[in-house]
Amino acid sequence: MKKWIFPSFTLNFLALFVSAQAFALADIEITGEADINASIYSLPTSDRGDSVFSVPSLLLNFNVPLKEGNLLFVSFEGAERRDQASKPFTVQTREAYLDLVSIFQGMSGLRMGLIPASWLEAQYEDWDYRFLGPTGWAITEKWKYLYYSDLGAAFMSELPLDMGEWTFAIQNGQGRDTEEPQPHKDMVLYLRFTKWNPWSFSLSYVRGNYEKYEDSANLRERIQASAMFKTEDDHWRAGLELLDAHDPADAITDLKMAEGVDVSSLTGQSVHAQGGSLYAIVSTGPKAELMARWDYLNAAVGESGKDLNTYILSLGYQVTSDVKMALEGDYTKYGEDYGIGVRDNSKVEIAAQVLF
Predict the structure, then answer these.
(1) What pLDDT score does 277 carry?
(2) Cα-Cα-Cα-Cα dihedral of 39, 43, 47, 50, to 10°?
């Protein structure tokens, strides 16, 4: 039987919610999502034809309104960790932050705690196929160039002339599991332009340093840009995302970034990566839609055989307002010298997203 590993501080958090007298229990909004998949893999190994039932993500969200418009938000995620045999299914705190808006004028706020990455938070507002599992995640999350959440603080506000919004954040770096204290932090600037409807554009810059690698090659840098077009009737939409990244070769290996690319020959050096994602979603009926997506990554610019291409095709069907299903197929092709034991693979899956 799989065990649920539920940290003690999680139980304390829930106890705090129940015992708190500052707000009525009825005001707490509880929502969630369960992603359930059944897959058949076609690999060039003895695993060909293997079938897998999985729950790639299970979310439980607590939205707690406070006085004067402030907000406490806490989210827990249960997910399978197939690379951890001793804890195949774990529960972790995904987000836990305070939105403080009462001390600011207009549409501005301070967010503190375990905060989501602004880039990924915005991506998933438009991209609603994360329930396909890691293959369908935003490229920066699935290749581990960004983590969904991190400890830190962010100031959020509107851009002038109603052009959109911006965020400046200071974060630990390397995600929610990073230990404190440490001298280096990540600086994040995020801009989102929504004035030119039906187009929207986003830019993001992340700069920080790793703690455990040589100072000459410990830079962590992300430059990201995206564009999205969506018709008013939502009949079809399309998006493009671009990524430029720098990391030490040792960090790429230690953190298992870029799907296991082998950069051992570049040890002690900074590795430059470039990638992108292009997708289109077209409505084919009152409840059905067709999605196609192409992801590309050159995990070590200047090195041969270090690129990958992933192709995804899915037919989605909105069964009810709270249940969406998809029949999906994907194929990933790796460069000839991508990594030790890394081979092309493909799968077909039936995926379900349940909202509650």
Answers:
(1) 99
(2) 20
Predicted confidence (pLDDT) per residue in 128-183, tens digit: 999 999 999 999 999 999 999 999 999 999 999 999 999 999 999 888 877 666 77
291 touches 278 (CB < 8 A) = no
CA-atom Rg of the chain in angstroms: 21
State yes or no: pLDDT of 322 exceeds 80.
yes
- The answer to whether position 94 is within a domain reads no
Give residue-wise pLDDT tens across range 164-177.
999 999 999 888 87
Q: What would the 3-class secondary structure string for the chain be?
A: CCCCECCHHHHHHHHHHHHCCCCCHHHCEEEEEEEEEEEEEECCCCCCCCEEEEEEEEEEEEEEECHHHCEEEEEEEEEECCCCCCCCEEEEEEEEEEEECCCCCCCCEEEEEEEECHHHHHHHHHCCCHHHCHHHCCHHHHCCCCCCEEEEEEEEEECHHHCEEEEEEEECCCCCCCCCCCCCCEEEEEEEECCCCCEEEEEEEEEEECCCCCHHHCEEEEEEEEEEEECCCCCEEEEEEEEEEEEEHHHHHHCCCCCCCCCHHHCCCEEEEEEEEEEEEEECCCCEEEEEEEEEEECCCCCCCCEEEEEEEEEEEEEECCEEEEEEEEEEEECCCCCCCCCCEEEEEEEEEEEC
CA distances from 264 to 87, 269, 320 (A): 29, 10, 49
Give a yes or no: residue 89 inside a domain. no
Domain carrying residue 45: 30-57+106-355
Q: What is the pTM of this model?
A: 0.88
Where residue 261 sits, what CATH number does that domain have?
2.40.160.10
pLDDT at 103 over 60: yes
Cα–Cα dist 205/242, whole Å: 12
63 assigned to some structural domain:
no
Q: Count structural domains, the chain.
A: 1
In a domain, 262, yes or no: yes
